[in-house]
Design goal:
About 25% of the residues lie in helices and about 30% in strands. The protein is α/β, with parallel strands linked by helices.
């Protein structure tokens, strides 16, 4: 098999990122945007020792589960990965991916539930980060990154984020271009604007604008001040406009230095009855509707009572612990990011919660401190990053031996690996996938464990 070869290949299965998996002469071939059962006229675009990557030239046999993408730039844009799949099939595939990951690790689960989907799986994102770049013709463009590239696919009408966010982003972009500000060049490392970020409260409709700049000089001018004045008067429910300085050469979107140039420090939104403050750098679930479903699924599965002490590890801004606080005696949250802990404490205050305490530090170090304080949890909730829990954290959890564990995961592979280790002392009662990110391959899951 060589690059540019053409083959008719049958898709045998779909992988973790919804890519089609085929085989040719015992070699695995990954083909994006294809479905199990389809026969694809495939052009090989990359060959490695253990696998190859192909692209669709034409479809010889079409799956009944294939549908027409609703976005005109879907096949170019790197944002969504499964608009070509009927939504019910997306939900089924996400459950199968979780099921396969657990089976690979030989994790015994009493029940793997069906994926909880959205009634309308569109317009759900409450945050957008639009790159602004100059192309080879030195034209400033806004859109999303082309797949596997930093080239811009022009688009300011994304069907998975709220349409009001798109309207605001377009308005900000047009005003900046009108006044002569230019997009960043990844090649030349120059330009004015790197990103336009819009955050909007799904329930409050409050709006925050963050303009990420490559330097500050051009933004200390009358023309920029005029733009700020126009935006503050033209956008309904606008609460904050920030400048964020990022002159690094990394792929990080936000830099360390930010300045509030209009309005209030935070916007607010609700998950269920709980109010949360949101800053430019706050982690806040981008799908507010499904965040409530996710947290309620966790709460229902844990069957909490008001005598229990709950540890909320990797607690972020406290969103999970606060949501569960009314059902337990005490919540202790541990989070390594100091700014996130500050936000968690603001959120405690906003909700008049008196039985929660959030502490800055590593999980490993603070768990030792809790042991020294003779504080032991009845319930531990974890919501780790994609890499999952480290072995030391798992060991501490096993040593604490809480009666129940709730594990919120954004990566089926690391969830399965960690559940395998925890199942030494715990039974896995259930795993429930929750579709937080329709039209993408991202999978969130809630696992409920009980001490054997």
């Amino acid at each position: 098999m060589k690059k540019n070869d053409r083959y008719d290949l049958e898709i045998l299965d779909n992988g973790m990122n919804f890519e089609g998996i085929a085989k040719y002469d015992h070699q695995v071939v990954f083909i994006p945007e294809t479905l199990k059962g389809e026969i694809i006229d495939t052009k090989i675009i990359k060959v490695n020792k253990s696998y190859a990557i192909g692209k669709v030239e034409s479809i010889k046999k079409i799956s009944m589960k294939r549908c027409e993408p609703f976005c005109e730039v879907y096949f170019k844009c790197g944002g969504c990965s499964c608009q070509h799949i009927e939504y019910n099939e997306q939900l089924k595939l996400k459950r199968e991916i979780v099921e396969n990951a657990l089976a690979k690790q030989n994790v015994s689960v009493q029940k793997i539930n069906h994926t909880i989907g959205m009634g309308i799986p569109m317009y759900y994102r409450n945050k957008v980060q639009y790159p602004v770049r100059r192309n080879l013709k030195e034209e400033t463009k806004i859109g999303f990154y082309l797949k596997r590239s930093h080239a811009i696919v022009e688009n300011i009408s994304c069907y998975i984020q709220h349409y009001e966010i798109d309207r605001i982003a377009k308005l900000v972009f047009e005003k900046l271009v009108r006044e002569g500000f230019v997009g960043y060049s990844d090649d030349k490392k120059d330009g004015d604007i790197r990103h336009i970020i819009i955050r909007r409260g799904a329930n409050t409709h409050e709006v925050m604008i963050v303009i990420v700049v490559n330097h500050q000089e051009a933004f200390q001018s009358d023309r920029f001040n005029m733009i700020v004045k126009e935006l503050s008067s033209e956008i309904e429910n606008i609460k904050s406009i920030y400048l964020n300085l990022n002159n690094s050469v990394t792929n990080e979107i936000l830099g360390r230095n930010e300045k509030l140039i209009f309005g209030e420090k935070y916007i607010y939104d609700y998950i269920g009855k709980y109010k949360y403050a949101i800053s430019p750098k706050s982690f806040f679930q981008v799908n507010t509707i499904q965040a409530e479903v996710l947290y309620q699924t966790l709460k229902d599965g844990l069957k909490l009572n008001q005598r229990e002490i709950l540890f909320d590890l990797y607690s972020g801004v406290g969103s999970i612990g606060i949501f569960l606080s009314n059902d337990v005696a005490k919540v202790y949250g541990i989070e390594i990011e100091k700014q996130a802990v500050e936000m968690a404490n603001i959120n405690i205050s906003e909700n008049n919660i008196t039985n929660a305490e959030y502490i800055a530090g590593s999980v490993e170090e603070k768990i030792v401190e809790f042991k020294e304080r003779n504080i032991s949890p009845d319930v531990i909730v974890v919501d780790p990053p994609r890499k999952g829990l480290d072995e030391e954290s798992i060991q501490y959890i096993l040593e604490f031996a809480p009666e129940k564990i709730g594990y919120v995961s954004c990566n089926p592979a690391t969830l399965a690996r960690d559940l395998k280790l925890l199942s030494e002392k715990y039974s896995v009662l259930s795993v429930t996938p929750v579709d937080m990110f329709p039209q993408t391959s991202a999978i969130e899951s809630v696992a409920i464990l009980k001490r054997k």
